[in-house]
Amino acid sequence: MVDITIIGAGVAGLCIARELRDRGASVQLYDRGGAPGSHSCSWWAGGMLAPYCEAESAEPEVVNLGEGAAHWWQDKTGLVNSQGSLVVSQDRDQGQLRQFARRTSHFDHVDRAQIAELEPDLGDRFSAGLFFSSEAHICPRSALTALHQSLLNDGVEFTVAERDPTDSSKAGLTIDCRGYSARKELTNLRGVKGEMLMLSCPDVTLSRTVRLLHPRIPLYVVPRGDGIYMVGATMIESSASEHVTARSLLEMLSAAYALNPAFGEAEVLETGVDIRPAFTDNLPRIQRDGNLIRVNGFYRHGYLLAPAYARKVGELLFGQTDTEVPHEHSA
Amino acid sequence: MRDFYGTTLSNGLMLGTAQYPSPAILADAFERSGASVATVSLRRESGSDRAGQDFWQLIQQLGVRVLPNTAGCHSVKEAVTTAHMAREVFGTKWIKLEVIGESDTLQPDVFGLVEAARILAEDGFQVFPYTTEDLVVADRLLNAGCEVLMPWGAPIGSGKGLNNLFGLRAMRAHFPDVPLVIDAGLGVPSQAAQAMELGFDAVLLNTAVAKAGDPAQMAEAFAAAVQAGRLAAQADPMEPRDMAAPSTPVIGKAFLS
């Protein structure tokens, strides 16, 4: 059995641990912050598994590698919500919607009545939209916790401690998944600040991710169930991660309000801010130097791309094997 | 060619650095267009502890002149503070001065603009004010110490092109020695060519390139348009007229004998 140490138990570390464990490796996980929680950038994510929407501004690779994400997450956690995603814009921004449609695929045009049918609480507020029926989302916190728990159940050792990847690689095969904390070693990594909020708004029922296109404040709302919504997220070229700024808060809230004025009555449960790790092309990288493999740069695509990169790491270490087949049938 | 505070630029294309899909595509846009100036806006929260330095380093690696921008400032005080921060971060006296007066159209608060320009010019800054085509305001800005003026084409990010041709022509005619830059509102390259044909010295744009499906190719297209417009302006274009004039008049026609 190959012994592998993974440092960093965010979405990248946990997906890779899951994939390698499923390929029969003996895995040890280290995270200085402990079990999945607010110390991890992945905790604050939207959890959208929306490769086709991302095509609007992301490289084609993001679409290709992200297509299998929903299947992977469903296979490993069973927590995927596959109601699709809905993209709308206000009447004066119809140009934005046309442009979005030109740059994406796998959607149907929906009119006022169809939007109201999909999401009654958007009512007749939007006259046109795009419905991406094959997209999905997952609650990041439940997903991380489920992966973590399943790994513990499978005998993966989890240590709450800081571990230096270079030191660790002297002892054995090590995978560095520390995200922005690896900035010192990865000098071309940069931080992109993201801010989000959690709202409790039982007055509004949305059953899928809704993106509101807007020339200044594009925004998405992801339902977390029980009237709770995640609203996000800003993208700021900064690595300061202390607090949400008043301006960002104002912009996110006014966009949510534009989606449905009932969001004005919502309670703000929490605000979150963290730093996305990104390389200059905003695509993740796997870099190998002997016993040390660094996987980083997931930018805003952690949940979408970590499964594909976990598979890549698996293939790097074990060669091509089919992990699509669930465990119990593979023998 | 008119110079900008003593600096002669290799061409009249100034590009903003916000909103690109990635810094790699941003760098590509600069490489393919050969743009001579990069504008960068600072958020004060990033300036305070240099938290934005990862990105600023990328901008400095572009190898073009950096024109820091007080984008999004709504008061004189904010703009002046941001300008000081920008001078410290980028080590340049150049500052693009924006004082926004109206949040829907993002049009400049010309009163605050003149005041902020005076404060900054007295402090040694070389100010590039984002203004309207108003001649009186332009005059006040020059008196306040500005040696460059940057009138809008149309509201920021609107892509509507040159909204007030009469006003812009009047401005060019009124200030023949002042370097003038069309800043904001351009959507497609033909509008940049038009600005250059009117005799403007440069154009400054961001959204039209950054939000194009292929930003690098759009940047190259704008560079070609800027060059075409400049060549045309220097070539003294013909005057339009109402009466048709045959391009091959009978009198001049060659004949076979």
TrEMBL record, chain A:
<dbReference type="InterPro" id="IPR006076">
    <property type="entry name" value="FAD-dep_OxRdtase"/>
</dbReference>
<keyword id="KW-0560">Oxidoreductase</keyword>
<feature type="domain" description="FAD dependent oxidoreductase">
    <location>
        <begin position="3"/>
        <end position="315"/>
    </location>
</feature>
<dbReference type="InterPro" id="IPR036188">
    <property type="entry name" value="FAD/NAD-bd_sf"/>
</dbReference>
<comment type="similarity">
    <text>Belongs to the DAMOX/DASOX family.</text>
</comment>
<keyword id="KW-0285">Flavoprotein</keyword>
<dbReference type="InterPro" id="IPR023209">
    <property type="entry name" value="DAO"/>
</dbReference>
<dbReference type="Pfam" id="PF01266">
    <property type="entry name" value="DAO"/>
</dbReference>
<keyword id="KW-0274">FAD</keyword>
<protein>
    <recommendedName>
        <fullName>D-amino-acid oxidase</fullName>
        <ecNumber>1.4.3.3</ecNumber>
    </recommendedName>
</protein>
Automatic annotation (TrEMBL), chain B:
<dbReference type="Pfam" id="PF05690">
    <property type="entry name" value="ThiG"/>
</dbReference>
<keyword id="KW-0963">Cytoplasm</keyword>
<dbReference type="InterPro" id="IPR033983">
    <property type="entry name" value="Thiazole_synthase_ThiG"/>
</dbReference>
<dbReference type="InterPro" id="IPR013785">
    <property type="entry name" value="Aldolase_TIM"/>
</dbReference>
<feature type="binding site">
    <location>
        <begin position="206"/>
        <end position="207"/>
    </location>
    <ligand>
        <name>1-deoxy-D-xylulose 5-phosphate</name>
    </ligand>
</feature>
<feature type="binding site">
    <location>
        <position position="157"/>
    </location>
    <ligand>
        <name>1-deoxy-D-xylulose 5-phosphate</name>
    </ligand>
</feature>
<comment type="function">
    <text>Catalyzes the rearrangement of 1-deoxy-D-xylulose 5-phosphate (DXP) to produce the thiazole phosphate moiety of thiamine. Sulfur is provided by the thiocarboxylate moiety of the carrier protein ThiS. In vitro, sulfur can be provided by H(2)S.</text>
</comment>
<comment type="similarity">
    <text>Belongs to the ThiG family.</text>
</comment>
<dbReference type="InterPro" id="IPR008867">
    <property type="entry name" value="ThiG"/>
</dbReference>
<keyword id="KW-0704">Schiff base</keyword>
<feature type="active site" description="Schiff-base intermediate with DXP">
    <location>
        <position position="96"/>
    </location>
</feature>
<feature type="domain" description="Thiazole synthase ThiG">
    <location>
        <begin position="5"/>
        <end position="249"/>
    </location>
</feature>
<keyword id="KW-0784">Thiamine biosynthesis</keyword>
<keyword id="KW-0808">Transferase</keyword>
<comment type="subunit">
    <text>Homotetramer. Forms heterodimers with either ThiH or ThiS.</text>
</comment>
<comment type="pathway">
    <text>Cofactor biosynthesis; thiamine diphosphate biosynthesis.</text>
</comment>
<protein>
    <recommendedName>
        <fullName>Thiazole synthase</fullName>
        <ecNumber>2.8.1.10</ecNumber>
    </recommendedName>
</protein>
<feature type="binding site">
    <location>
        <begin position="184"/>
        <end position="185"/>
    </location>
    <ligand>
        <name>1-deoxy-D-xylulose 5-phosphate</name>
    </ligand>
</feature>
